[in-house]
């Protein structure tokens, strides 16, 4: 007796019947329109501060300070950008920010990756406690650790230096890096390690040729987070370092004086300060999407 497959039309009707039984949300026109309106409103609210910064940066000072605000500059000017770029300590703080941020990101990735590898691949006493500590450290507010950080740096003569603040930022980024990379490494099947070992690969070759390439998207995603954290940090560096050893976030504070706020250079400086983060994000955006969705690895 030969079994015959059910006609395609019957299978199609059954599939359609199951889909109609599935409860759905937001399928009505009113629901779709409300969701779209909410999305547009949210986008406007989020984008308006950015638009106002750009709008103010291209206005001359009299137009910025006039009583009635204008939504478009009547006279475009680049003087605010020239003033910000040539202001005291701007270029110095820009260089400081690049050095501190790159050093912190590279240091956090090196230490964090090895730590995540040990937690994900090896069984040792206190492993779960370490994971819990790493998660708990992320919940501590920055302000609570300022005084201990200052005393620790002072003991090693690292106060008011780029090396000291870089090490602080490494500690700041490290918990998130370890926690995130641990998930990526855990998702890599151990069978790949075992297969490579059977083929004669050493532990270093397994690490270098299998684990490291498969963790690449995770490294990119965590590096972006670390870059944004280190570049935009303000409280710690403004408290521990003087003006010559700060970053651009602390420099922006110079535009607020007892005589008032220089809104034009402040807004222009804000745009110049945000440009490195935007450029870095545009360079690695493809890998970010891959890294954020890479949970189940690719065996």
From TrEMBL:
It is a multi-pass membrane protein. Keywords: Cell membrane, Membrane, Transmembrane, Transmembrane helix, Transport. InterPro entries: BP-dep_ABC_trans_perm (IPR050901), MetI-like (IPR000515), MetI-like_sf (IPR035906). It is found in: Cell membrane. Its main location: membrane. It holds the Pfam family BPD_transp_1. This is N,N'-diacetylchitobiose transport system permease protein. It comes from Actinoplanes digitatis.
């Amino acid at each position: 007796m030969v079994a015959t497959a059910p006609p395609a039309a019957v299978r199609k009707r059954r599939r359609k019947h199951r889909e109609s039984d599935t409860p759905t949300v937001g399928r009505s026109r009113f629901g779709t329109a409300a969701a779209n309106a909410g999305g547009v409103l949210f986008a406007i609210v989020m984008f308006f501060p950015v638009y106002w910064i750009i709008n103010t940066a291209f206005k001359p000072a009299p137009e910025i300070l006039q009583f009635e605000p204008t939504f478009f500059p009547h006279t475009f000017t680049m003087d605010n950008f020239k003033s910000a770029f040539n202001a005291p300590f701007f270029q110095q703080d820009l260089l400081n920010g690049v050095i501190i941020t790159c050093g912190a990101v590279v240091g956090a990735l090196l230490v964090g990756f090895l730590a995540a590898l040990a937690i994900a691949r090896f069984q040792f006493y206190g492993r779960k406690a370490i994971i819990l500590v790493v998660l708990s450290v992320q919940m501590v507010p920055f302000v609570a650790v300022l005084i201990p950080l200052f005393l620790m740096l002072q003991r090693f003569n690292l106060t008011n230096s780029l090396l000291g603040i870089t090490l602080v930022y490494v500690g700041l980024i490290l918990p998130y890096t370890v926690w995130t990379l641990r998930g990526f490494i855990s998702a890599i099947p151990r069978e790949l390690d075992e297969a490579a070992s059977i083929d004669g690969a050493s532990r270093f070759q397994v690490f270098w040729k299998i684990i490291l390439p498969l963790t690449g998207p995770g490294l990119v995603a965590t590096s972006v987070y670390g870059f944004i954290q280190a570049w935009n940090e303000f409280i710690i560096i403004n408290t521990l370092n003087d003006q010559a050893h700060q970053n651009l976030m602390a420099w922006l504070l110079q535009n607020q004086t007892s005589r008032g706020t220089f809104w034009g250079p402040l807004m222009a400086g804000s745009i110049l300060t945000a440009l490195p983060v935007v450029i870095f994000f545009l360079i690695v955006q493809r890998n970010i999407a891959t890294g954020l969705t890479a949970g189940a690895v690719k065996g």
